[in-house]
Amino acid sequence: MWILDGVWCLLCFVISMTNCPGLSAQTPKDEFDVTSVKLMEPNSTAIRLQVDPANMIMSGFTLKFLVAYAYGIFDFQIVGGPSWLNETKFDVEGKMDQQETLPSNSTNNPGTDRDVSTALLQKRLRNLLADRFGLVIHVGQREMPSYSLIVGDHGQKFQSSTTDEGFITGRRYLKATHMSMSELAELITTAVHVPVIDHTNLHDAYQFSLSWGDPVLEPDSNFPDIFAAVQEQLGLKLIYGKQLVTVRIIDHVELPSPN
Question: What's residue 23's pLDDT?
């Protein structure tokens, strides 16, 4: 989205985010009231990720990671920029002066509330990056090696969702109660490290489980690799080729001045 090792952690944090309690019912601001951007201490190895739209802390991350999070993309979707974009690490914080109540959904769907929180945090982070790093980007497309996610010859092996209780995910495990195929493609992307594009033409939300192994890291695993698991357990296929992928192209960025 993305430093590949951070993608899975990042997805888990996004899904586990909850709304910030508060008193104000006004429309939330698009910017943090207080921001802090510092270079990470040279000898520090600490990493902290607190994804709260009212009190964000991202310590020990590169600007490439921050841009990927702010725009909800993977690191390979970021094109251009100086070499320090993926080398220099920063401690970034954003806070609101007052507690606030985020707009609630009218369907009693907790997933929608999480989406509201995530969208607000990303918007505030994008404004922070523009203000403190002078970040200017535009949307483009690049042809890249990728996988197409398609339905196998015998059809999918899962059913439409009957409930929405989110999903549970680990590095090589997924149990979903309400997931679209485009969301599944994003999660598979984190495992195969190249873009996965949904071409299933399945437009509902679905419930399923998926477990796989890594033959390189776990040669004695009893689980199939991700390609075989997708086909055996879900009835889907991953077809390799080249496709146009939406990217963010960096027009301008600069090192921030210290607080």
Answer: 42
